Amino acid sequence: MRDLRLALRAGGGFGLGLAFFLIMTVMVPLSVGPQPDLLASIAPGVLWLGALLACLLSLDRLLALDWEDGSLDLLATAPLPLESTVTIKALAHWITTGLPLVLAAPVLGVLLNLPLAGFKWVVISLLLGTPALSVIGTFGAALTVGLKRGGLLMSLLVMPLYMPTLIFGAEVARRGAIGMDVQTPLLMLAGISAASIALLPFASAAVLRINLR
Amino acid sequence: MSIWEYANPKKFITTTERVLPVLWAAAALCIGGGLIWGFFFTGDEVRQGSTVKIIYLHVPAAMLAINTWVMMLVTSLVWLVRRHHVSALAARAAAPVGLVMTLIALATGAIWGQPMWGTWWVWDPRLTSFLILFLFYLGYIALWEAIDDPDTAADLTSFLCLVGSVFALLSRYAVNFWNQGLHQGASIMRAEAVIGTDTQEKVSNIFFYPLLLCIIGFVLLFVALVFYRTGTEIRARRIKALMARERVEA
Fold first, then answer.
1. Rounded-to-integer distance, Cα A206 and Cα B76, Å
2. Which CATH class, in words, describes the domain spanning B9-249?
3. CB 3.0-4.6 Å disulfide test: which of A35, A172, B16, B118 passes with A125?
């Protein structure tokens, strides 16, 4: 499994999501104007949206490469259950995409004039939320893996599934930034992540088996 | 006599074809009757004036928009467990109907909201979750259209429906939490309203009976549409099979 992770890292996707995140946050002040107050109030939401889109964009490489060269068939027949393979895939995606986004978020927060109290909560909420994004995205990637141009369709399928995570995650960051109590959305976010990680790999594996049939 | 007999496509088609004219007629009668009754034979509401009459379209459409997804969930489960093709096709047939119902509910809501709330759209939980539901329908239909092999498509969309149901429900509560609403609560099916202890929030009887007629009409219309569209899907698939056979023989 370790070589699988290495293979993904060598795939060249490592920095791309991060670069997209950076560009996205640079574009926001350019489009809404540079007023510090306005930026401070939308910063948590923009950071969350940017992280979500960066995750989304890197998803289609997640399974498509293995599908094309046939190694997915091998993985499906391997002694390791497909459920754990899918989980590892999602984990690899999170390590290559989610984790760098979490680490980059505070830096970009400076660009967006994020209030000082917000930094901690943006990082915590992203840390809790991005695993869910990876796992949900893996399900979407598994659904569309057999399609020639599945990228756009996958976005359409995955985006609605991302909504609860986005709502609670951005809410944690927003409340944290203005110094409100964050406990409820934080617990909900953690719950969504935990449940997705526990249950969705089964759905993803089932869907992959159908696609490999 | 069991419901599984209708999993046989032939039996399904012959039966539904016998029932369909009755269904169409009953649906037309109920909706027509309900609308005419509602529009011309009930007075205007005290505060809302005649705009209140849009509930005869809004409420049934909204109820069906949600229940269509539930029906798709059930038929998807039946397909995954018992592999009845009619079931999968019924889910496929129902999805566009649900999409249109969602659209009707959103559009009539906007038309009513403009004079009453002073805005076409607010990010109210109910409105937002309906918009999310609309996106779920779009994704579901797009996935059906994108996959060539019918069995694979049925499997994948069923899984999407299952997972989507969980997330749709989550979204419903998430948006509730995210923003407090402007939309009134459910005022027809509430327990107090049914018992009649709560006179404040209940839809008054004058409006309720034509509304009930409209709801029944919409349900009948939905059933008729789904039967009709499922029959079409079955025939389309049969034609495809026949053409494939001819090509092999030729």
1. 15
2. mainly alpha
3. A172
pTM assigned to the model: 0.85
Q: How do the domains of chain A map onto residue ranges?
A: 2-212
Ordered by start, the domain boundaries in chain B are 9-249
From chain A, the residues in CB contact with B136 under 8 A are 160
**Cβ–Cβ gap B167/A213 under 8 Å:** no
Asked whether A208 and A146 are in contact (CB, 8 A), the reply is no
Which residues in chain A are contacts of B177 at CB distance < 8 A?
167-168, 171, 184-185, 188
Residue type, B132: I
Rounded CA-CA distance A84/B122 in Å is 43
ipTM of the complex in this document: 0.84
Q: Is A89 in contact with A71 (CB distance < 8 Å)?
A: no
A198 and chain B: CB distance < 8 Å anywhere? Answer: no
Chain B hits for A200, CB-CB cut-off 8 Å, are 163
Determine, for residues A203 and B135 on separate chains, whether the beta-carbon distance falls below 8 Å: no
- Cβ B160–A211 below 8 Å, yes or no? no
